[in-house]
Write a structure and sequence with these properties.
The chain is α+β, with helices and mostly antiparallel strands. The protein has 14 helices and 16 strands. The structure holds adenosine-5'-triphosphate (ATP) and manganese (II) ion.
């Protein structure tokens, strides 16, 4: 018999058909009703066992978490809560589950508890919903770029360039840790290391992405990214996935348009393709909100918020305008910011970004034209000589979801800016070559994939939107 998934059966609703199913028991009620889930969708299917047809000892093995296969007829359900159910004719236990030891019981577990059981948490309603939406999100990214004529470029995960300054690095080495070779001045000698030089895990595929853009026109990377920062926040992972488009002949405005279109496309796809999971998470979030004090509650539900973002353009606001707004703001005047804003030129903290997005504009915001000295060397200098064509996309509840810029395409200025921040241009001669050999205006940005998944699922902690999170002190499973 051909294999069918529960999702297929619930979608087609063919009463009278005989089906074979495999999956995990969520609950077994009154020795009669099995709620069977196979991961294909949020819903379990009710499978009705005729008590007299099976041995009592055998039915004892049907417990929460056990893996079973069954064959039966699809019939219209007599009970409430579902329109069809399966009348079980054959039943096999594929894998017993010692129910007294199984940590995933049919009740509400805290997210903290489930993080400790990350190897099994994917079997819960919440995490399976999040993982299916993560898939929809990932698929939407590829679909978006493919339809726009971008090429997916696979940039290296091991790199030797450490000049990007995007974050702290994880070293990659095969040198013996118990006896590290040193040179005369006592520094580590990497000559005998695997690559003959010092290497690390990538913090961004951007520089290589630029090489792709200046040959293929429009490219994007979508790969794992590593940062060894010791930041224990709800928005940072040590290993996360980043989407980095890079486009020749695109200026900062084109870049902002693309970032907005990408975000909206992803949200629309999730609204369209993940309805059942979204409804589940929407309810879940509404429950959570009820338990919060009134003043901390979000004014919008999850689906409402996604529709709002998908139907409205993002506000565009220059850094200088933002500083004006912040300086005049109530929390600044009343000393409520941990980092008060007193002058142009300071870096914005997440409290400022959240004020702009959640309180002032009440909309996603793209900030642009930042002071040169708080941004990376490769961002294009404006004619004012003090700001660069940088942009940050800020989302409610998330803060920065994407950051990018128009790139500095002028060789002399780029070299000067490298020197000013202490980067030896010789170490990035390959990058500088693009500016020597047919340079052009180009732009790009990096969108944090998990931050986007956080936004579309409403999960407040980034550790809960990646199957097996890596954070400082945690690399289990
Ligand atoms: P932040 O200021 O939030 O730490 P960043 O400015 O260091 O971020 P970028 O180097 O601009 O980050 O990276 C591009 C995008 O990658 C960010 O906008 C964010 O969405 C995502 N990102 C950056 N660091 C992390 C991290 N540690 N974990 C998850 N996502 C991240
Ligand atoms: Mn950034």
């Amino acid at each position: 018999m051909p294999k069918t998934s529960i999702s297929q059966i619930l979608n087609s609703q063919q009463v009278g058909e005989i089906v074979s199913l495999e999956g995990w028991v969520r609950t077994f009620r009154s020795k009669r009703f099995i709620a069977l889930n196979d991961g294909s969708c949020q819903s379990s299917i009710q499978c009705v066992v005729e008590y007299a047809d099976f041995e009592e000892e055998f039915l004892k093995r049907i417990t929460t978490g056990s893996c079973i296969s069954l064959t039966g007829n699809i019939v219209a359900s007599k009970g409430q809560g579902q329109s069809i159910e399966v009348e079980v004719k054959e039943l096999n236990v594929l894998g017993d589950c010692s129910s007294d030891l199984y940590p995933i019981q049919p009740k509400r577990h805290s997210l903290e508890f489930l993080r400790e059981k990350a190897h099994l948490r994917l079997r819960t309603n919440t995490f399976s919903a999040v993982m299916r939406i993560r898939h929809t999100t990932s698929f939407a990214v590829h679909e978006f770029f493919n339809e726009k004529g971008f090429f997916n470029l696979h940039t290296p995960i091991i790199t030797s360039s450490d000049a990007e300054g995007a974050g702290e690095l994880f070293k990659v080495t095969t040198l013996p840790l118990e006896n590290v070779p040193k040179d005369d001045s006592g520094d580590v000698n990497f000559d005998s290391d695997f690559f003959g030089k010092s290497t690390n895990l990538t913090v961004s595929g951007q520089l290589e992405g630029e090489l792709g853009a200046l040959a293929l026109g429009k490219v994007y990377t979508f790969g794992p990214t590593f940062r060894a920062e010791n930041s224990n926040t709800t928005r940072h992972l040590s290993e996360f996935w980043m989407i980095e488009p890079e486009m020749a002949f695109h200026d900062l405005n084109d870049n902002m348009d693309l970032a907005q279109d990408l975000c909206k496309f992803i949200i629309d796809q999730v609204l369209k393709k993940s309805k059942e999971d979204l409804n589940f998470l929407d309810d879940r979030l509404a429950q959570e909100e009820k338990n919060k004090p009134k003043e901390q509650r979000n004014s919008m539900g999850l689906i409402e918020k996604l529709k709002f973002v998908s139907h409205n353009n993002f506000i565009r606001c220059s850094y200088s305008e933002a500083i004006e707004i912040l300086m005049k703001s109530k929390p600044n005047k009343k000393g409520k910011f941990k980092f008060p804003i007193s002058k142009w030129g300071v870096d914005l903290q997440s409290e400022h970004e959240r004020f702009l997005v959640e309180k002032h504009f009440k909309s996603p915001v793209i900030l642009f034209d930042y002071p040169a000295n708080i941004k990376a060397f490769y961002m294009r200098l404006n004619d004012d000589g003090k700001t660069v064509r940088a942009m940050d996309v800020l989302f409610p509840g998330i803060g920065e979801i994407a950051g990018g810029s128009q790139r500095e395409e002028r060789y002399d200025i780029l070299v000067e800016k490298m020197k000013a921040v202490g980067i030896n241009p010789d170490h990035l001669d390959w990058y500088l070559d693009t500016r020597k050999f047919g340079s052009c205006i180009h732009s790009g940005f990096g969108l944090g994939f998990e931050r986007m998944v956080q936004f579309v699922t409403g999960m407040s902690n980034i550790r809960d939107v990646i199957p097996f999170p890596r954070t400082p002190g945690n690399a289990d499973f």
